[in-house]
Amino acid sequence: MVRYLRLYAYFVRFSFSRAMEFRVDFFFRIFMDCLFYAVQFAFFGVLYRHTTLLGGWNQEQVWVFLGGVFVTDAVIMTVFANNTWWFPLFVNRGDLDYYLVRPVSSLFFLNTRDFAANSFFNLVIALGLLIWALLRYPEPLAAGSVVLYLFLLGSGILLVHAFHLCFLIPVFWIQSTRGLDEMYWVTQHLMERPDRIYRGWLHRILVSIVPLALVISYPTSVLFGAPPLRVALHVFGATALFWLLTWRFWRWGIRNYASASS
Amino acid sequence: MSPHLFFQIFSLQARRIFSYRAEFWVNTAAGFGIQFLAIYCLWDAMFRESGQAEIGGYTFDGMLLYYVAAILLGKLVRGRERESDLANEIYEGGYTRYIIYPVRFFAYKYAQNLGGLVPAMVQVLLFGAVISFVVAESALATISLSGILLAGVAVALANLLHFLLKAPVQGVAFWADNVWSLDVMTRFVINILGGALLPLDLYPDWARSILHWLPFEYLTFFPVRVLLGQVGFAEFAGGMAIAATWCVLLALLARTVWRRGDRQYTGVGI
Fold first, then answer.
1. pLDDT tens string B86-104
2. What ipTM was assigned to the predicted interfaces of this complex?
3. pLDDT tens-digit series, residues B200-213
4. Is B220 helix (H, G, I), strand (E, B) or coil?
5. Residue B270 belongs to a domain
6. Which one of A46, A176, A202 has the shortest CB-CB distance to B203?
7. Is B201 part of a structural domain of the chain?
8. Residue B37, domain member (yes or no)
9. Sign of dihedral through CA atoms B55, B57, B59, B61?
10. Structural domain of residue B49, as residue ranges?
11. How far away is chain B from the Cα of A6, in angstroms, using its nearest Cα?
12. Within a domain: residue B36?
């Protein structure tokens, strides 16, 4: 475990020095994410001019939900996004060989090696917005609920990353996962809206096979009165199950990997 | 550039995109389906929870129709953005070949952009036909032949406006290594201020009066309203005049940026 943490510290250090080589892009990206936050606030702000509730939540509750959306997005962009972008290319070019022979888990190495330093500043901003939304919430929030919310949000982030990997691992069999990856990015927008707007069979799918409602909406619901034990079991259970499936899928893919010819 | 050469570039680009048939259609159909589902659920919740029969002057079916038109016409306005990525030509050094080609760079890229619209036109016809079974007949009744023809003109100008809006942004690549984030920022602004995320009728009046004079609403909101028969001829002419004025201004800006950029360009690439 310590070895992995030291390795991750090196990844972070290298990423910061690399990011500083492209300073203009570095600041552009920070500004880009701030604009994304502004657009989301504007979007829901306009909607709440015409309704008092959306998906059962009032505007203050949706600001907290949005804080979760921003933190989730920032963590994914900081920790995983660059790696998931490179992964299919490594398989296609046969570069995966270099990662398979290293004395650490290839799944860990390939999912964490490229830390996006520019997005890290957005993570700080996103956390600030989440804290702001929690502090301005008019009713008292129990400390236990907030702690559970943070753990559930962390679990949700791992869950959505495992879900994303399921769209990328087929690269071991098919030449390009570009189409699948595009489908993932379209689908994942469903988690950026309160889950209660989805009803019936669609809601059932979003809390099971395509578990996007569990990523942000379910963690947020524990702050507003949802039964914490049931939500925690659902989110943690789904994350564990999805990671187990992803890990087995990964192992299966690795067995089919034929280096540069794959 | 001769019309014959312009058509050759247009045709080549259209065939290039159609060559990835299976992936293209699966993605397009799935993307459209998921997008429509998300919009349907959002507005179903909005109408249900607000208890209103109309929001911003739209009934539920009218709202769905607005979004379907915005998504489909948006495809014609934006084209295949990746394929006409001007900044990549600079970054990868590919811009060098256009300097020695006997064609003008922007004319070449615009022909490519139009070629990329052919699959989008097929999608518009196909998904438009499918969706007409989902949306109530009363909402569809506002669409007329004259509305379709005028919307065609508005979309053609919107496509040119979009192309010219992005040209100066992409020209920043002469000075910066990577302008992907600038491009994404432009998309965010176009979506929220242009009516792709929300009909501008839902915005406060002060915002509407400012947006009226900016180029963004002529990219989505205006062509959609023309299609839905919400715009009279005088308003149509006024809107087209504002959009055309922005085209001229942005063309001048793009020319200035690219002329200055040309002096910086070393042709090194990556």
1. 777 787 777 888 877 777 8
2. 0.87
3. 999 999 999 999 99
4. coil
5. no
6. A46
7. yes
8. yes
9. negative
10. 3-264
11. 31
12. yes
